[in-house]
Write a structure and sequence with these properties.
474 residues; alpha+beta; Pdz3 Domain; 2-enoyl-CoA Hydratase, Chain A, domain 1; 3 domains; six-stranded mixed β-sheet; six-stranded antiparallel β-sheet; 20 strands; 33% helix; 22% strand; globular; disordered N terminus
């Protein structure tokens, strides 16, 4: 069946409320009336649930203490879905539902900033950054940016409470909250501190960043897919097009996926009307098979060369995007084979929580099922990484603090210093590309987040090959 991009799906992490009236409290009879198959197997479900009801009531009547019925409900729901033995199917209890929904949609109420908070176990009383929250970078236009918060600022208190013993997750949750509610933070900056009260606003997590590299090549990094990624990507593409780029590199490396809608909307920017984005095939007899096609709203000339960078960390929706672009001949895939997650999950409200259940396989435009197989690149270029046999040497390198000592002694982040480090340590049993990457990352950590280069064609072999392809056409 031919469907347009606008029909909503769920793969891995998107809140699509399917069968909501039934599962939010309907009876078995309502379940059957909803269109799910009535069979001997369904009768078995009815019998089993009746037995569980009897067991529940009996335990509730004889157990020595009061039964926590919310916990019982959550544990039963978790156990039911866990019995599928599917790592991508699970139940989200009410205590985690809000965070889950924010993660899936990429939207939440907050002050809008990337932050870092070390584990409480690593506290060093002499170093405030080891126990306070560090603002890595405020989001453009966010309450944090408008209030003048800067990269490197520290937060010591949230609403009067010290953050010392909070984990990164706990700190993030305290800064989040309902839009239009205030939060007071104590900011520590260069030895002085002051209180600042900010009004939380709806925040959309940025999933796209871009720059022009090598003079005239557009470079876009896609960190994940949310329902907002398509519109964010379109803005960046249009901005790059105004700068007369001669080619475009889209970096999906280590993008673990996310919302299918975001991936399809992103591919729709580049593909022609009627070209297949993805095909979904569900359980036989459920009428869930669909083919999704581009709407023809492409804003990029078909003559503009595009490269997609991918690796073993590229999974799920990022594979849908890569396959749609590769199979339709719109992009060249460079890097290593992708992860291989070719299954679809539906997410639906269940009680006060959510359930996520695998419901279908997806197929690439050429009809391939890439689950547990991945997508092979058009041009293979290996990642710069520590090989298994090099791990003992790497551990010794870190124990001896060779990298940090070198950077202290050679503080200028120049290509010459990076190359010299690799040359000086070539006999340590670690490949030169990995050594360059390690010391480059150490240099980058010393640069304020908002001043760091978005890409590094010099010491990133996969990106270097992509640049070469754009420049030479091969």
């Amino acid at each position: 069946m031919r469907r347009t991009l606008l029909r909503r799906l769920s793969l891995s992490f998107i809140t699509l409320l399917i069968f909501l009236p039934v599962f939010a409290g309907g009876s078995v009879e309502q379940l059957l009336a909803s269109g799910l198959p009535s069979s001997t197997q369904t009768d078995k479900i009815a019998t089993d649930m009746a037995s569980l009801t009897s067991l529940y009531r009996y335990v509730d009547s004889i157990y020595i203490d009061e039964v926590d019925k919310q916990k019982m409900f959550d544990d039963l729901a978790s156990a039911l879905i866990a019995s599928l033995d599917d790592p991508y199917s699970f139940y989200v209890p009410p205590s985690e539902a809000k965070q889950y929904q924010e993660d899936t949609t990429g939207m939440y109420g907050g002050i809008g900033t990337y932050l870092n908070k070390p584990s409480p176990d690593s506290k060093d009383p002499a170093d405030p950054a080891s126990y306070m929250i560090t603002i890595i970078s405020p989001f453009p236009g966010s309450p944090a940016q408008r209030a003048g918060l800067m990269a490197g600022d520290l937060i010591s208190h949230i609403d009067g409470e010290k953050v010392d013993d909070l984990t990164s997750y706990e700190a993030s949750m305290k800064l989040r909250g309902e839009p239009n509610t205030p939060v007071t933070i104590t900011v520590y900056r260069k030895g002085t501190s002051f209180d600042l009260t900010l009004n939380r606003e709806p925040i959309t997590t940025p999933t796209v960043d871009s720059a022009v590299i090598e003079g005239n090549i557009g470079y876009i990094i896609l960190s994940e897919f949310t329902p907002q990624t398509g519109s964010q990507l379109l803005e960046h593409v249009q901005k790059l097009m105004k700068q007369n780029i001669t080619g475009l590199i889209i970096d999906e490396r280590n993008n673990s996926g996310g919302a299918v809608d975001g991936a399809m909307q992103s591919a729709n920017i580049f593909l022609k009307d009627g070209q297949t984005l993805v095909t979904i095939q569900g359980k036989k007899g459920t009428n869930r098979d669909q083919r999704y096609v581009a709407t023809g709203n492409t804003v990029v000339p078909q003559t503009l060369p595009i490269v997609i960078l991918a690796n073993g960390g590229s999974a799920s929706s990022s594979e849908i995007f890569a396959a749609a672009m590769k199979d339709n001949g719109r992009a060249t895939l460079i890097g290593t084979k992708t992860f291989g997650k070719g299954i679809v999950q539906d997410v639906f409200k269940f009680g006060d929580g959510f359930a996520q259940v695998t419901t279908a396989h997806y197929y690439t435009p050429k009809g391939e099922n890439i689950h547990k197989k991945g997508i092979e690149p058009d041009i293979q270029v290996d990642d710069a990484q520590i090989r298994d046999e090099e791990i003992p040497a790497y551990e010794q390198l870190m124990t001896d603090k060779v990298i940090s000592t070198y950077v202290q002694e050679h503080p200028d982040a120049t290509d010459q210093n990076i190359i010299a480090f690799a040359e000086e340590n070539k006999d340590r049993g670690i490949n030169a590309d990995a050594l360059k990457l390690l010391v480059r990352n150490e240099y980058l950590s010393k640069i304020p987040y908002d001043q760091r280069p978005i890409a590094d064609p010099t010491f990133d072999n996969q990106l270097k090959r992509a640049v070469q392809f754009i420049q030479e056409g091969k």
